[in-house]
Structures are given as structure tokens and as C-alpha cells.
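Our preliminary data section would be incomplete without showing what the modeling component actually yields. Below, a chain of 213 amino acids is followed by its predicted structure, encoded as C-alpha cells that our downstream tools consume directly.
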Amino acid sequence: MDDLFAELDDGAPQELAAGVVLLRGFVREQASLLLAVAQITQAAPFRQMSTPGGYVMSVEMSNCGALGWIADRHGYRYVAHDPLTGEPWPAMPEAFLALARRAGLEAGFADFSPDVCLINRYVPSTKLSMHQDKDEADFSAPIVSVSLGLPAVFVLGGLQRNDPSQRIGLSHGDVLVWGGPARLRYHGVLALKHGNHVELGACRINLTFRQAA
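Predicted structure:
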């Protein structure tokens, strides 16, 4: 697995496929992001959501922005209020918005203006099954995914569930962007390996920026 993290380590944007760009070590100032995550999740706590079929997701989630993504027995969708608290989702911090816009621009997607940030918390053995991000109203905007904490292996598939996939090692500060012809590619995260990150301990935080409305 180490080769997944070593093969692209020069700091330059790496186009992994049409519409898929890896920005290795792109996040330089992580402390402000981690503080913002703590503040957001104090108001909108992490929780494990359930799929319409009753499966409980292993990843813990929260949101910030004008809308938040949820899953329950009624389906997958975006809502303006946190169903756990009844309150609007916390506002998206300016540092989040600036980072997402800058990453989108660097990856070739100008004018990206996310209205949602889905915050995922992984602990060892947590994984994310292969899926498409398709609950958004407009697929012209990319997905910007920021990795913080323990390293993870991101699995990028094709436009069909059974298409061949590739594995991408993501470390603290890496950003992966996909859009255009890659916007609806299946993707997931392999089970997180045990470890200890100097700032986050045995944990990985993923910030996923989307333009939902």
C-alpha cells in the first residue's frame, strides 16, 4: 500500500484520469480547518446514518452549509435543517469555502461555489462502499474531497458499478477533485487501517464539498 502514497509525491497537480485531479499536500493550514470541524460538530454532532434498506453506515457524518446531506428510511437527499437538532446546519466557514474554490480552480474547475460540506469521520475498520454522488440538482460542478488525519485508500471506479477501479492513496492534506466526464464515477474508501495521527489520533476526517442546489 505504501506505493500508493509514494508514487505521486512532487506536489504538482496530477491528472489521474479525465476529470480527476489529485492535489498532493494541497492543504497547508490544517489547524484552522480542524478547529472549524470541532465547532461545527459541537452544534451538529457526528452521527451514523441509516440507508433506506436499514443498513447503518459505519462512517460518522455531519454537515455544514446551506444544505446538508442525509440518509434515512425515506431515501438520500439534501435538507436545510439537521434532523437531529431541528436547527439549520452550521454555516460553512469562510476557510472551507476558500479552500474548496482554490482546489477547484487548481484542478481546472473555475467558479466552483459549494453550498454543502459533508464531514465524514472514519475510525479504524470504517469504510465507505462504492457509490455515486448523484443527489445534487446539477452535475456540472465537481466534487472536492479533502483528507485530514490517518491515510486512506480511495477507490475510483467507472460510470458503471462493475467497471474496473483504481486505488489512490490519500494522506493528511491531500485533495482529490473529480468532475466533468468523471463526475458520476463510482467511488469508495477501503477499511481504514489502524494508526495514530499526531493531530487527530486514530481518526480520519474527510471534507467533501458539493454544489447541491
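The domain at 2-210 is CATH 2.60.120.590 (Jelly Rolls). The mean pLDDT is 94. Preliminary results of this kind motivate Aim 1 of the renewal.
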